[in-house]
Design a protein that fits this description.
- This protein is α+β, with helices and mostly antiparallel strands and 675 residues long.
- The chain is built from 26 helices and 7 strands.
- The strands form 2 sheets. A 5-stranded mixed β-sheet has the order 3-4-5-7-6.
- The termini are far apart.
């Protein structure tokens, strides 16, 4: 056993981790060694007899976690994208230990004293360094550095228990999602799916030892993409119910008790830190500022969104001839879209072949905006055979690697995300970055084209927006690098990147029939654009419902969190009824038992971030349109003021300086059809 491939800086191009040399048994010892290294570095800082200053306190603090960050970057991606039983054991073992490790640093009284001393003299520092010190003071205070020793002891116990339960939640959800995958014996029951989707279902079943059958694997959100195409209503019902049963069936994979435990512990921790709720603690260190500001925005949008959804529901029922159930909505929405706008998104999938979308859509837009080029590196190995590696250059100068892991598998958690293996940082001597995008597209049989749904195209552009953020940001200090920004700001660049999906010169470049080579007809494109706000009542309502559930749970005091898992559904119902989003035909995008964003993925009390960031996004899209769109000059401005700054300064101040004002809400209201 060797941990060198994890602990040492890789000698592969761009410091790409040497995945071929990493074994599951290496992770535990490597994490252990990296934690010990950082604790020794912190001890050296606190033992320094010299008066605290930026160079002897903040700089070594920034460097202290380099090895641990490198190890955890590889490990956390492995645990999410290609987990094994051995990796799951390590996750469970180290969940609480990593929480304790963080506390050992942030609750160190001598280190806190030294940081405060540096902050007292921060006006002498350069702006980037001064902002870094400001962020350290805020972060340490919110982590409990100013508490007394008894309270710190209780805080450590809370953090360890929270971390254990969050990890258990994710593992249980993944196991239940795999167990509940829908097995269909007769391919005729999958009528409406494409040949590629049917072959993907057959391959998934064979991988589970179910040769000759078909397995529809579950996705993270409530609404499964196949619900828009499956013609058999009973199969749709079974698939929809499987999606909503995850984590709520009782037994070993039930997540509800874990979620309630996490909520109580988070609420107690917030009270210990001087906040009335976990929501208050989270928003205090985000651009929103308070949960009241978040609730105000969400509730302002809820009523008109609900009204729009009701009108849409009436149109669907008229088309179907019966009352619409959750498993009917997507199916009949496509039929109403076709009737009203003559647009059938499912029928357009032959124009959306994945490789073409990637190279001639996603990469093409980035080349025009930012001067980026992408060259596939077949000589570099990813962590799974499906992973592809691209070298990225800007104006001929290499800036890093982009890894793409497109396909779903049982070892990968649901959803889509971006992660970093290497962050650019002047202090660490790294001029380049290595980032990865993970999606969950069903993989067709060998030789068959991967045809993307409209939602999968949107997801690819969205996640690539995060990747651009990681590749183009420039920072001196590692904790400010890449996407290290406020949680309710980080979704903004990814949402902006979605605008290029329908941009004329981008769409015409990638939307080419994969068999005939014919471009997508211009009249079809015009109809797609005219239908942009179609079904937006549903889309906005399901999102707001999830955001409000997340917020409502985290506004509770510890004594108000239910203890009975059977109370979970009732709580959600009350929270939605209070704002008029309790429409049974429009379930929330995520429900508590499978709300991974809230209970295991860092978005606790922050799922509002998407709509909060969309205010900036919609205003930015308007700016691009007003200023000529897909031009290098526009891309350069956007890099200079938004994605290029990483976490080196206040993002809203940078935005206001760029636009000459804060972002107004009106462009968002127009986009969402809420005017």
């Amino acid at each position: 056993m060797t941990t060198d491939a994890l602990l040492g800086v890789s000698d592969l191009p761009f410091q790409l981790p040497d995945f071929a040399r990493i074994r599951d048994e290496d992770y535990g010892p490597a994490i252990e060694a990296a934690m010990a290294e950082q604790i020794a570095a912190i001890a050296a800082i606190t033992a320094d007899p010299a008066p605290a200053d930026f160079e002897n306190t903040v700089v070594p603090l920034e460097l202290s976690g380099s090895t641990l960050s490198r190890v955890l970057g590889v490990f956390h991606n492995k645990a999410s994208a290609d987990a094994t039983p051995a990796v799951d054991v390590v996750r469970s073992e180290f969940a609480s230990r990593l929480a304790a490790h963080s506390d050992a640093i942030r609750l160190d009284p001598v280190l806190w004293e030294r940081i405060q001393a540096v902050a007292a003299d921060a006006e002498r520092l350069e702006p980037e360094a001064a902002y870094l010190v400001e962020r350290y003071v805020t972060g340490f205070r919110l982590a409990g550095a100013a508490l007394g020793e008894d309270d710190k002891s209780r805080l450590r116990a809370l953090n360890e228990e929270i971390s254990r339960n969050e990890t258990a939640f994710e593992l249980a959800l993944q196991a239940d999602s795999n167990d509940l995958g829908l097995v269909v014996e007769d391919a005729a029951d999958l009528d409406g799916l494409t040949p590629g989707e049917i072959s993907a279902a057959a391959a998934a079943a064979e991988a589970r030892g179910l040769a000759g059958q078909h397995l529809l694997t579950l996705v993270l959100p409530t609404a499964h993409p196949h619900l828009s195409a499956l013609t058999d209503r009973e199969v749709r019902r079974r698939l929809s119910q499987a999606q909503r049963l995850r984590g709520a069936r009782g037994g070993e994979h039930d997540t509800r008790t874990l979620a309630l435990s996490v909520l109580r512990l988070r609420a107690e921790r917030a009270r210990l830190l001087g906040f009335v709720s976990h929501a208050a603690a989270v928003t205090a260190d985000n651009t929103a500022g308070t949960p009241e500001a978040v609730r105000s925005l969400l509730e302002r949008l809820a009523a008109p969104a609900a009204r729009n959804a009701r009108r849409e529901q009436e149109a669907l029922a008229a088309q179907a001839g019966f009352a619409i159930e959750p498993w009917d909505w997507a199916f009949y929405a496509e039929r109403v879209r076709a009737a009203q706008y003559d647009v059938d998104l499912a029928a357009l999938r032959p124009w959306f072949e994945a490789e073409r979308v990637l190279r001639d859509g996603v990469f093409f837009a980035a080349e025009r905006l930012y001067g980026l080029t992408f060259v596939e590196r077949d000589d570099l190995e990813g962590y799974h055979p499906d992973v592809r590696v691209f070298e990225v250059s800007r104006d001929g100068d290499p800036i890093g690697l982009y890894l793409l892991d497109l396909y779903t598998r049982d070892s990968k958690r649901g959803g889509a995300w971006m992660s970093s293996f290497v962050d650019q940082s002047v202090l660490t001597g790294s001029d380049t970055a290595v980032v990865v995008n993970n999606l969950n597209v069903p993989k067709p049989a060998a030789g068959e084209a991967t045809l993307l749904t409209w939602d999968e195209i949107r997801t690819l552009f969205h996640e690539f927006g995060h990747a651009l953020h990681g590749l183009l940001a420039r920072a001196t200090y590692p904790s400010q690098a890449g996407t290290a920004v406020f949680r309710d700001f980080v979704e903004y660049p990814s949402q902006v990147n979605e605008m290029w999906i329908l941009w004329p010169e981008v769409l015409s470049n990638y939307a080419v029939h994969h068999e005939t080579g014919e471009p997508i007809p211009e009249d079809v494109v015009a109809r797609i654009r005219s239908a942009e706000t179609f079904n937006e009542g549903f889309g906005t309502s399901e999102y707001l419902a999830a955001a409000l559930i997340d917020l409502a749970w985290h506004e509770l005091a510890p004594e108000d969190v239910p203890t009975d898992p059977d109370e979970v559904q009732a709580f959600e119902q009350r929270a939605l009824a209070a704002v008029g989003l309790d429409n049974p035909a429009v379930p929330p995008r995520y429900s508590t038992p499978y709300f991974a964003h809230s209970f295991s993925s860092g978005y606790a009390s922050a799922y509002y971030s998407y709509i909060w960031s969309e205010v900036l996004d919609a205003d930015t899209v308007a700016w691009f349109r007003e200023n000529g769109g897909l031009t290098r000059a526009n891309g350069d401005q956007y890099v200079e003021h938004v994605i290029g700054i990483g976490g080196t300064r206040d993002p809203l101040e940078s935005y206001a300086a760029w636009r000459g004002r804060p972002a107004p809400i009106e462009p968002l209201l127009v986009r969402r059809g809420l005017t």
